[in-house]
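Render DUF2480 family protein in 3D.
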Amino acid sequence: MEPLFTNRVANSGLVTLNLEDYLHPGERVLYDIKDNLFHGLMLREKDFREFIKTHDWTQYAGQNVAIICSADAIVPTWAYMLLASKLQGQAHHYVFGDLAALEQSLFETAIATLNPADYQDARLVIKGCGDKPVPTFAYVAIMQKLLPVAASIMYGEPCSTVPLYKRPKVAAAVSE
């Protein structure tokens, strides 16, 4: 007996790539160096080094940390570098910048791990709707990574896609 319905999506050969799968699950934390400023104006080296020495850095274990200074203050570059030296080995990932910069850096790192050869000649669907927010940056970055190898790339869900790219067919050489 022949089935009443055929799942054309399952039989289509489409490969779905969900960028949500590349979101690191670690907590996102904003470290604002303004809390270390003297009178909210400048960083004093002696006080800051004492803070660095006594602060419990283990609280950042496995977290993703964005380091900023939200005050209009004088903060020497070495202060950010000193913070980084303490976050190294504790935090999963850290950046200088706000939470959006952190998210971008996390996606850059994740997308860099993709092997384009795994998608050679694939008909890809980049999933667009999901439960977690994926920044537009990630969609552009995945295109940049996979355009050279994919046969086609679509956006959306396998049952309802927006075509974005189809590799042009190479004209056969005319023999004489």
